Structure prediction request, 631 residues.
Amino acid sequence: MENRSYVGDETWNADTLPVGGLAGNQPHHHHNHHHKHHTTVDLKAPQSTTASDEKPPLREKWGRNIEFLLSCVALSVGFGNVWRFPYTAFKNGGGAFVIPYLIVLFIIGRPIYYLEMVLGQFSNRGCVKVYDLAPAMRGIGVGQTVAIFTVITYYASVLAVTLRYLVASFNPELPWAKCDPTWPDCVDSSRLGSIALGPNVTQPKTSADLYFRKTVMHAADSLDDGLGYPDWRLALCLVASWICIVGILIKGIKSSGKVSYFLAIFPYIIIAVLLVRSLTLEGAWTGIKYFFEPQWDKLLTIEVWYEAVTQCFFSLTICFGGLIVYSSFNDFSNNIYRHALIITSLDTVTSLVAGCVVFGVIGHLAHVTGQSDISKVVQSGPALTFITYPDTIAKFDFLPQFFSVLFFFMLFLLGIGTLIGIVTSVITAIHDQRPDIARWKIVISVGLAGFCIGLVYITPGGLIILELLDYYGATLVTITLAVFELLTFAWIYGVNRVCKDIEFMLGIKTGLFWRVCWGIVTPITVLFILLVSLIQYKPQNVPLGYNALGWCLYAFAVLQLPCWAVYAILQKQGLVWWDRCKAVLRPMADWGPEDPTKRSEYGTFIEEYKQQSVTNRTGNLVEKVRRKLFK
Prediction:
């Protein structure tokens, strides 16, 4: 970590400090600079004399703004919507989950999405170095990198299962359409009618369900006998998946930007086809009614709201660092306000459409198997998508293999789009700290590590491990660090300072909704959900040692925060202890836009803001809070 001096002295706090050390007495044109078209600086051109010779080259940029928009769509609209959302909604009662989810998206998801976009684009820094605005909090970015790498490992394994199904779809007959003679109590997924069950007859399972559990995953019911060994077919698919990811990322952000045109647009065509087919299945509307019909008693349970918050994080891919990284490759004047509204709205619609497809199929399965209770039709969990979608396709009258290829190709593209974004955040976090290491070496190293860990998830006990690490290493870590992220951005750096940055960058004033959400509603809601979930904690249904492993992973990620804070304090020399602590909660000397000219203008802009507010620094706590939020 660079040992640079921090901005300001002890008489100023973070929201009034001159930034960049370049303010001087230069004329400032912040009233009209944002109306000009931003031109990307030629990296080969001679640098301005205001920049130090030791400065690194300007950050690589997206080829076009539309590539950023589509890449964010591919990042946010992916496995979180089509794979994770349906099984989370099913597990939490369908309509009982959808209402809290929509509320959470509005008061938590969209505000955080816009906030991360703003700070990534403004600073042109990745998910770790963005905390140059308060270096003591840099451990948040490191911990989020640990969490996102956990997600990467099991997302890649899900991608491998998707590829396995894609290859199987080229068979003359879909292998999950008919029951294997060795499967007891099985009903063909290709069956369109219903079956009558006697009073003592065992509830049958569909062939798509049994194909996934017995043929693809060889799934174990528990971890009592250990994990088992990886399936060799899935291992080959995992290798192929990582080759695709590494191949796209090894040349940098521009190559992944070009791929985004296909990754973001094509999947919607297939989703539309599947939606039409799902809605026309007999009994489908029973499942969709279950999906949208509120269960008011469950709305008062904290578990549903906890799941809604975590699904919001996964669906939008917020508080993982990926969004900050993508935004950091933007032109400084890009209109991210519009992009944030477009992407969050599209993400919500996609989740609901995917839910309609899955619950339409579940309603049809209830009709076919004679099960009157929708919640008991299939077992909830990560496997749900690989049971309901194939079952739908098996019932297609016309070329089911063709539609199966299209669907799993679409799901593969969605997974690639999501993984490209979150793997980029890990690569950027490492490269920002160690720019001396060639990018291609980091990409290959991350790919090899991801592959080796991903083998765990394609063992017979892999699905159980997936849910375990998803809870401890991803969900719980993300919510914990989200609280500190919001505390840092909204109160240490300051909502008012963020709003001034937006004004300088985009030339727009920030409305009351965003200020109240960033400063009060969003952090309090996330903190409340975290505290209640910890109080009501119940160990996962696995042997004790696996729960202990989960807590170790959680501790490793969260303890990055105090460790890096202590490191930042120790690196600050020449001050007494208390002044060190205050100094590392202030922006670093080079905080601001990466362009030296823009940073000079920004220093003057903040200096003017400081002069306006310095005369009104006294007052009680309420007045100080008001200034922090609304000044």
